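Q: Here's a chain of 549 amino acids. Please give me its 3D structure as tokens.
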Amino acid sequence: MKKRRLLVFAILLALLTFFISFSQFLSPSQEEMGETEKDFSSDRALNYLKEVAKEPHPIGSPANKKVRDYIVKHFQNIDVPVEIQSKPVKDIDEKYAAEIGAENVENIIAKIQGTSGDDNAVLLTAHYDSAPETPGAADDGYGVVTMMEAARALKQMPAPKNTIYFVLTDGEEEGTLGATALLDRTDILDQVRVMINFEARGNTGVPILFETSSNDLKLMQLYKEIVPYPVAYSFASEMYKKMPNYTDFDELKETKKLGYNFANMGGLEAYHAAIDRVESSDEETIRHFGDYALPLVKKYMMMNAKEFQAIEENKGNAIYFPLMKKTLIVYSEKFVIPLMIVLLVLTVAIFFFSFKKQMTQIKGFALSLLAMIGSLVSIFIFYFLLIRLLSIVFNIEIDEDGLIMFGTYDPLILTLMVLLAIVFCFFFAKWISKKCGPANFAMSTQVLWIVLAVITSLTFKGISYAFTIPAIICVLLILPIISKVNWAKGKYHYVAVTGWIVPSILLLAPIMYLIYVARTLSIAPVIAILTALISFPIIAIVNWLMVDE
């Protein structure tokens, strides 16, 4: 019974850590945002959305002009000067001009004048056109109403030191036409020091900072300090750069200005679909957009030229990720390789002592590693075939991007698949541990994490933290056990188990969820493998320490 306490402790701790890690996806309440005239109101923003997303309003349509006029009137009503930038579509792209039938792209440009002039201007952007088949409540109604409400709140405050531009672009859905036209406005862009873009790829979920301008270390440190509920992932930024997606930010970042690009990704079934309507909108998502927009603008609109210059002259990139609600970790990319070296030194030490103390044997260790790799391959193949089978049973088509959506069944299917993967891991782990020895298996599970930490540190630095940090902590904590020091017994075993469970789940579980949101259940085989990567070491270490007790 005493030995089983460690197992019960591990299970309860894993569940608790899982729930804590997902607190990073919580949005602020309206009470937390504030309820004065100077605060961002998601309720007001939702009322704007009822007009912006009444019907589909693609570029060139009568509905598009109604939305344009409504937005213009809003800025006029709050005493913000506004103009329309018009440019013939054929002057931007003749192919699109022929296909979409729109003569002009019409950007809305509003301006809150700064007291010190225009030299350190702040630029907010979103697009007000929708795809032809959808009212576009989320894409990009969320961005539009975020800017409208932010402008209203800012007008309740003393005049900003730096000028603020609100640019609602047209024709984004047809190939960032409005953003391309905006590049002509050098009179504005030459004065801009920082850009903030708002997008949507779905109608729910917490908005995340998924892209920044280059050399973003100081930019991210400032973001961490300014935003009350920051959600950002360096792996998402690096991954986005390798994908064929585009937003207005892709055009604007050619100006080499400082910049942030935000988007929510939940509710992918609403993306460019008829169901992207006001009735299916998520007020919490809009509120979280406001939590980004207003604090960032309030900070940048009061900065001086030297402060902007300090950020611009920074040449370092950042690694960043949330731990939980309101907690964002940011550190320099320069630490990635040193951390990898520390891990490799610890790896040499742990294997030296494990073989010297005869806790592991070369044959048992090698067989354990091969058996575990074989188990991972089997799990991947099983899940790949299972998803294909389910798509046939539910008559679900796999689209051109490889996405598979089962609608309301998606969360349930994902949960069951994760639980099934844990069950598979338990039986595989018990079998491998019995055949090869618990210590051999426990050590072999560390090898995969160490290999992944090294590979990502060299090729995909943005996600390296998710493997390097847990591996370092785990190796450090089990080193005293392997070295057989007197105090590394009894209660210390709970410390060692905690050292593996908490960082691995805290850092990797949210990534698993995000790649599911981005790629749907088509990514289930990868999620199963990541589940196994977390589960195998936990089961192996608990089993090994229970035997050791």
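Q: Can you summarize the key feature?
A: The first strand starts at residue 82 and ends at 88.
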